[in-house]
Please model this.
Amino acid sequence: MGDEKILIIEDLHKYYGKHHILKGVNLQVDEGETVVVIGPSGSGKSTLLRCINLLVKPDRGRIIFDNEEITSGKIDVRKVREKIGFVFQHFNLFLHLTAIENVMLGLTKVKKYPEEKARKIAEEALLSVGITEELWGKYPAQLSGGQQQRVAIARAIAMEPKLLLFDEPTSALDPELIGEVLKVMEKLANEGRTMIVVTHEIGFALKTADRVVFIDDGRIVEEGKPEDVILNPRTERAKRFLSSIKELYRLE
Amino acid sequence: MGFIDEVAYLVSMYGSDLLNAMLLTLVIAFTGFTIGIILGLPASLGRIYGPKPLGAVIASYIELIRGTPMIVQLFLVYYALPIIGVKLDAFTSSIIAIGLNSAAYQAEYFRMAFGAVPREQWEAALSIGLSKWSALLNVIIPQGIRIVIPALTNESIYLLKYSSIAYFVTVPETVYVSKVIGAKTLLHIQIYSVTAVFYVLMTLILTTLARRLEEKISIPGLVVKGRV
Amino acid sequence: MPLFEELATALIIIVRYGLSNSIIVSALAFFLGLILGFFLVFIEVLGGRSASLAVNSLVTILRGVPPVLLLFIIFYGLPSLGVSLNNITSAIIGLGLISSAYQSQILRSSIQVVVARQMEAALSIGLSKWSAYTSVILPQVLRLSLPGLVNEYTVILKDSSLAYAIGVVEAFTQAVHIAQARFEYFTPLLAVALLYFIICFSLSQVVNYIYLKLRVLGYGG
Model:
């Protein structure tokens, strides 16, 4: 783990109409770190992720990514997004393209690689997430949820991003398919990638996270090592949230 | 003479006139449809993704066209445009009026089709760094096209029928020529049956072609919503 | 402004002498289409294979022929078979037949939706099939079909202008007569366009309103 801070979020605020969703979030992520974000629904986790890759424009505060202040308004949004990989809860694969075409699209249209180079990179990315050759020509509708999500991960990592964002990547999956996706994410974490993962999978957090962040009502309430935050929460709110989750997963 | 003999007589006497008229019908319908796409597709994109004032203007145009009969629009183009110096012959007037009319309806069909592409496809496209244009071209439009096909098929069938409004400005298309033949020979039912068969046959051909096209470009998982 | 006065004059003449026929023709054609449309749906649902085929063929033909052609067939063609109808009746029957084809589709899809949701429930509280249809299915079918049917009426209203072809003096014909009498086409055409637009646009707003209300009630289209 290097001591380069790849991401610095300062006093981030976001309003949706009258709703104050993010109420001053401060977060720093080192290169190579795996940060897991947990919290109740509506706490602003998804919004936070979408602010980082500028799908959502923050109302106040600063985000510094890869030594660039990306909230300054003078940056090329697309160049920023090239360096950030985003994995969605509902996969969001391009429905009209096959698996391999999904991965190649960013390489040919954004990075402007020639087709053979794009294809090679795409094939490697797909193999690294466990999607073998016979699935490459399939359309999203022909793949299981777990396969679709892994293709989505391949699509994100093929762009060689400096930061990977995961927005509840397993929440839309049938239980028996969750494991294969978590395995891929574990592998990515162990490879030293910088990842921010919003999830309810406490087991994954305990096993893979370098740091766990608990968000409630638009603010970071507790932060620290996974064992500390999850097994010995200090704040009331964290305690309440985690006891109900742990009951669900029967971890106590 | 029996019915069949009368029809045979008509076909032999006026066959070539009818064929020319039917060809004209197809030309009018096809050209009108094409103008409709050329104007309608950009109009729908302008309405969804363009600045608000542009969208309002386009929407007003669409409402005006859809709220008035096509024949009124045709008469305005043919009889009223000369006032500002634009004198068009009957054939051109018909094509322009039909084209402008179709553009309004097609703009709506395209708009609904693009609206039916899930919002998340935008997010995904933007998140890998595609520009708005690139996302539109490579992700949204390819999906929207497949959704819009049934509506466009209906539209083409509609235009085939309504190419007949050119009758009112004495363009020698199928309905006009049939009426002339009917008046001449007094074999009304006979000639009209022939032309009715022509139109229905064309409709069936169009429908079959459309179904083939749909099958050819269909993608597993992109369900094309059927329209009545 | 002289244009405004001429416009108003034209509009008044059209409304006074032409609009009534437009409304009569379109309204009667609509109801004819509604009744025939229901009839077609019943035959298709209750009849066997051949009934379905017959209905589908009829619908294909009615949706494939130009309205003007059908008007000619009825007005000029039928007399040779002994059936002489005047032009207004011909227009009503012609437009009504075509409309029945479209209305049968609207009704059929509504019936399918409502039956899928409500038939089981109706039968399981003990209603007979007939009662289920009359007390549960039909009222909902009419409600669900309302936007489509009102929309269909605007289509018929606009098509009623085609009755000009067989000499029915409705709004459009009236506008053309004014234009021919004064050698000036723009003003009366603009007037009749305005008239159609006001009626059709208002009806389309009504359709939107009904559609929204239906969604609130849970009938989401």
Notes: DSSP finds nine helices and ten strands in chain A.
